[in-house]
Structure formats: structure tokens, C-alpha cells
Amino acid sequence: MLLRFQVTNHASIRDEQEISFVAGDDRPQRAQQPVPGTRFSAVPVAAVYGANASGKSNVVSALAWMRAAVLDSFRHWDPAGGVPRKPFRLRPDPGAHPSTYELDLAVDGVRYEFGFTADDESIREEWLSYFPEGKRRKLYSRAGSGPESLTFGRSLTGRRKVISELLRPNALYLSVAAAQNHELLGRLHRWFRDGLRTASDRDYQARLNYTVGLLRGRDRRSQDALIDLLRFSDLGVTELEFREPDERLLEETKRIETALNDVGVPFRVDVPDCHVRVQHRVEGGTFALELDEESSGTRTWIGMLGPVLHTLGSGGALVVDELDARLHPYLADALVGMFQSPDINRKGAQLLFTTHEASLLGTNARTHLFRDQIWFTEKDPDTLATRIFPITDFYVRDSGEAKDNLEKRYLSGRYGALPFLDDELLRRMADEIAGGGDSGAGQTVEAGRSQAAGAA
User: Fold this and answer.
1) Confidence tier at 272 by pLDDT (50, 70, 90)
2) Given pLDDT bands bounded at 50, 70 and 90, which one contains residue 273?
3) What burial letters (b/e) apply to 48-83, b meaning 16+ CB within 10 Å?
4) pLDDT value, residue 16
5) Pairwise CA distance, residues 24 & 233, whole Å
6) Which residue stretches belong to region Disordered (predicted)?
7) Is residue 440 over pLDDT 70?
8) 73-78: average pLDDT
9) Architecture of 1-200+321-418 per CATH?
10) Bridge pairing between strands 150-152 and 196-199
């Protein structure tokens, strides 16, 4: 499970910001899980609200980048290419400021703290501790870019020195150790690979491929669950059908990718695993439509089914950017409810999502989000840097007859994180377009000539 994520200097996030999954209250009506070795629990869902361009998507981007660094830094990053990070750029000399990423998580009943700091050239720091029996023990720490900067705790056994000799300045030790089949560190690496998943518009094809992969697999229960969710959505869809991909197209794409990568040009194309059509049953029979003929909401729902079912079925965390995009509020509400419900979410799965859908906070929502599950993003008006803060910074009643209507309070500006709309600019715009056209342009030119003549 994911317990805490902290990031400094990523995209619009300039200063240290944090999101926590640690529950503030005990709520038996939600699928919260005990945190190993503590008296705390972890919430199953966390929602991030904020205005456009406030930095919500960069919360997802930061987690996705940290995951990519763990999975790719040793195997795929150019040894001489530095660190492909995304620092905050709205200040002088952004390259002079390092970026830091840190996670608290639990894997196989043990809690870990893992993090690293990087600049444009190398990994400057890296650390990993764990808490067997609730007591903190150091596994390793790194205070520089080279192997000599590593120190190891007594709890870390295995070929740690051999692994350190393979370390590059721009690679994480965790990535190197996993590539060398280190048992303990490989377990943590697999959590980043299999237990932390992201969903955004950028990875739609990969998500669709995963959804279709469930249908093509041998697990009949997963296939039935997927079809049930298709029909549950009331989109008029009864089945998905697929046709195997064109092998010649796959081979040609692979050849182009290999050729470009061999000459130092990173290139990758997500080729569909197969051709997908959507079946609809109507009065006259069953008919199939091409996937691109379906509404954007239908395509979005189909693309989400694979990651949602896999996460609910195996545990781990799913991080979704703009959950409500192209989905009806009832569907977004139902998706959140799957993770919130103890009856449906039986493996401790977690959902972190960004959204504008304020109805999820309202009293009419199917799924009730509590105060320790709601976060906001705002941009500082002077620096344009993102600030992340929880609704618990405000007094909120979320139980009993006196429960606050969070939707109403949010939309009325009680918690901030709303766009500031300057009505004076609208009035000015109305005056400008009302007097627009060629005559307006001519008046402006004549006025400029008169001013020039007066100055002369």
C-alpha cells in the first residue's frame, strides 16, 4: 500500500509538497487497511481538486516520473545523458536546484521509506529503510553519484558490493540491484512495476491493450468481471471483440524502433495489441462498431477497465489523472465507490485521482469521501508554484446530522483551489469586440497619428 508521497521541484511543484494516505479517523464503512507495525490505517481513496493549471496533473506526473526512474534508470537511460528530470522552470537557473522524490509504502506486510535526490547530471542522494517489527532499520544510503558514496545497513545482505560496482552516476541503486536479481530489493522494485499504476490520456493505448489482454487471457473470472463492468456502465455495450494484429506491421515498427534507438534517437510507438470492435445488442440483433466510432466516454471507460480490475484483484495503487474527463458523474462516482467499498475492494487496492467533479463531494453522491481523503492544489500568485493542502486544514463536519455539504462549500470558495475569474476583464473584452472591425482599427491608427503629430 501507498502511505505517503513527497516531492520537491517537479514541473509546477517548486517547494516540498506531500500527499498522505494515512487515515485521520477510523471509518469501518470504507476499505481502509492497517499500516504494518503501527496503530494507523491507510485510506483506500484520495481525491485532488483544484483549478485548471493549478498543478493537479503534476502530482500524477511526479509519481509516474519516480516510477519510471526506478524501472528505467539502469536499463534504459543513456549512460552519458544525465537525468531526464522535469524541474520547476519559472525561476533563474532552474538547473541549479535538485529534485527530490520520496515514498512511504508497505510491501508484503513490511513498511519502507525510499527516496532520492537528483540534478540534471546524476543521482545526488538515495536512501532506503524498512521497519521490521515496527523499528526503523537502514538498508542503504547514498551521498554522491559513485559507488564509494554508498553505505549499507547490516540488514541488507546479498551481493551488495558487486552490485555497487555496476552503479552509474545517473542510475538508482535500487534499479541496479533489481536487474541483478537481489531478492529483497527486487521485491520493492516489483511493487513499482506491478503495484503502482498510472492512467492518463498519454497511456490510453497501453491501458486499452491491457483491457483486451484480460479478454484474451485464460482467466475466465477476469473476463466475466470485465464484461460485467462493461454492462454495468449502461453504455449499450454487451461485448468486446478483437482481431489479431497485423504481424507485418508489428515487425516493421519494431525494425524502425531498433534502427532509431541504435543511432541514439529514442523512439517508441504503442502499437495496438489487436483490432478492437464494440458489440451492441439492439432489437434487430447484435451489431459491432469500430472503437473509434464510439463516444469518447465509452472509449475512456473501456480503457479504464483493465487497470481497475487488475488493481482491485491484486492490490496496489492506481493513480488516475482527470478521472471525470469524458465520464458521466455517475460513472466516476461508481468507479471511486469500487475502491471505497469493503465489499468490492477486498485486496487493499488504492485510488489516487485528480478531478474537477465537485458532485463527488456532495450529499447526493453514491460514494462518501471523508475529510482525510480530500486534497487541493493552488498556485502561488507570485511564483506560480503549486501548493498541495488537505481539507483537514479547515474545520469540517463529515458525520452525523450536522454533516457539512463539502460540494457547496468548495464551490462557494470556502477551501480555495478555485479559479479566480476577473469580471472586469469580461466587461473590457465586451467593449473591445463591440467596437471591433475595420473602423475600430482605423480609429486606433488615426489616434496614433494625432499623438505623433502632437509630440512633434
Assistant:
1) low
2) low
3) bbbbeebbbbbbbbbbbbbbebbbebbeebeeeeeb
4) 98
5) 33
6) 435-456
7) no
8) 94
9) 3-Layer(aba) Sandwich (3.40)
10) unpaired
Cell of 158: 546479498
Q: Please state, in angstroms and as integers, the Cα–Cα distance from residue 277 to each residue in 124, 238, 370, following that order.
A: 49, 11, 39
Would you kindly state where each structural domain of the chain is located, as residue ranges? Answer: 1-200+321-418, 206-306
Decide: 383 and 90 in contact? Cβ < 8 Å: yes
Cell of 397: 463536519
CA distance 145 to 173: 10
163 SS3 class: helix
Return the closest-CA partner of residue 59 out of 329, 267, 271, 354. Answer: 354
Predicted local confidence at residue 264, as pLDDT: 67
pLDDT tens-digit profile of 297-315?
888 888 888 899 989 999 9
Instruction: Label residue 441 by pLDDT band (50, 70, 90).
Output: very low
What does the alpha-carbon distance between residue 173 and residue 194 come to, in Å, rounded to a whole number?
Answer: 19
Cell of 445: 491608427
User: Residues with Cβ < 8 Å from 170, sequence gap 6 or more?
Assistant: 73, 77, 79, 81, 82, 83, 118, 121, 122, 123, 145
> Is residue 96 packed enough to be buried (19+ CB in 10 Å), middle (13-18) or exposed (0-12)?
exposed
Read off the C-alpha cell for 340: 471505497
Backbone angles phi, psi at 322, to 5 degrees: 55, 65
Q: Which amino acid is at 147?
A: P
Give the three-class secondary structure for 280. strand
DSSP run (H or E) holding 212: helix 204-216
Name the grid cell of 185.
530489493
Residue 286: its H or E element: strand 285-290
**C-alpha grid cell, residue 69:** 526512474
User: 3-state DSSP call for residue 21?
Assistant: coil
Q: Contact, 278 vs 292, CB < 8 A?
A: no
Residues with Cβ within 8 Å of 109's Cβ and at least 6 positions away in sequence, in order, are 36
Question: What is the Cα–Cα distance from 140 to 129, expressed in whole angstroms?
Answer: 7
Side chain identity at residue 242, one-letter code = F
N-terminal to C-terminal alpha carbon distance within the chain = 75
The separation between CA 50 and the C-alpha centre of its own chain, rounded to angstroms, equals 15
Range with lowest mean pLDDT among 75-84, 179-188, 299-308, 385-394: 299-308
The H-or-E segment that residue 224 falls in is: helix 220-232
